[in-house]
Amino acid sequence: MGLPAIGSKRIHLPSVDSTNKYAAELLEREELAHGTVILADEQTAGEGQRGRPWISTPGSDLTLSVVLVPPDMSAAKQFGIAQLAALAIKETVEAEDVQGVQVKWPNDVLVEDRKIAGVLIANELVGQQLARSVVGIGLNVNSSGNEQGPPATSISMELLRRVDRDALLERLLAAMEHRWQLLIADPGRLHAEYLAALWGRGRWMPFTLDGAPYRARLVELDDHGRLLVEDENGSVSAYGMDRLRHAPR
Ligand code: BTN
User: Fold this and answer.
1) Whose CA is closest to atom 11 on ligand 1?
2) Are residues 79 and 113 part of one domain?
3) Residue 1 domain flag
4) 183 membership: H or E segment, kind and range
5) Which residues contact 52 (CB under 8 A, 6 or more apart)?
């Protein structure tokens, strides 16, 4: 029997500290089926990347966590989870007619230079296998971008109209299911799609390498999700997100 589709099971909470934290706590007590979605109207202590808070406007934005339980996925493929999430968000935002949507490595979604969504992923590895992944998504929908970034934006700021949040959620979950199937069947295509959408490709930009300022040109992304960057001496190296980061804006 195949896996249930993403969103087949949903837990809708009016208010919670963080959907990622809620998912982690629930998973300590019980198994959750693949595709379970934990959705909150309000997060009182939303978590962002690098220990930063994620602020969203209650009832206006989308804050959710999706539990993925791959039956047989090598840990080497784990960057595919980040790719599927970022590309599903991009597709969802573009379907509203927002132009200039790109993905910023490893898993932000931008409109031009303005951040519209962030993804926080907790992967659980067992040996060389990816046992489970909790994919936390914060998408700015009808708010004023929540001063995330800066600069930040939301779908309604881009379009100057309100957006149906429920319809957006359905589109997002369907897009995630589609990209999940692609990750299983044709990860090369998912990678190519991510590369085509990658923000800053070919440009010189500020990074941090092992915490120190580092200027480099973003050249490419390898199959493991490592960025290939060229330094000022012309040598090209591959770095993962454990060492390389975009410099804070
Ligand atoms: C980032 O810093 O860009 C990542 C933001 C991730 C926010 C989402 S909102 C739903 C889920 N629950 C959390 O506490 N964080 C993620």
Assistant:
1) 136
2) yes
3) no
4) helix 165-185
5) none
How many domains does the chain divide into? 2
> Position 175: which residue type?
A
Whether residue 89 contacts residue 137, with contact meaning beta carbons closer than 8 Å, is answered with: yes
Q: How far is the CA of 235 from the centre of ligand 1 (A)?
A: 35
Q: Based on the number of CB atoms within 10 Å of its own CB, is 108 exposed (0-12), middle (13-18) or buried (19 or more)?
A: buried
d(Cα 38, Cα 65) in Å, to the nearest integer? 5
Q: Determine if ligand 1 sits within 6 Å of the CB of residue 102.
A: no
Q: Which atom of ligand 1 is nearest to the CA of 46?
A: 14
* pLDDT-above-70 percentage for the chain: 98
pTM score, two decimals? 0.96
- Spell out a b/e string for 36-53, using b for 16 or more CB atoms within 10 Å of the CB, else e: bbbbbbbbeebbbbeeee
Which atom of ligand 1 is found nearest the CA of 49?
2
Tens digit of pLDDT for each residue in 178-217? Answer: 999 999 999 999 999 999 999 999 999 999 999 999 999 9
Going from the Cα of 117 to the center of ligand 1, the distance in angstroms, rounded, reads 9
Q: Has residue 4 been placed in a domain?
A: no
Q: Peptide bond preceding 14: is omega within 30 degrees of 0, i.e. cis?
A: no
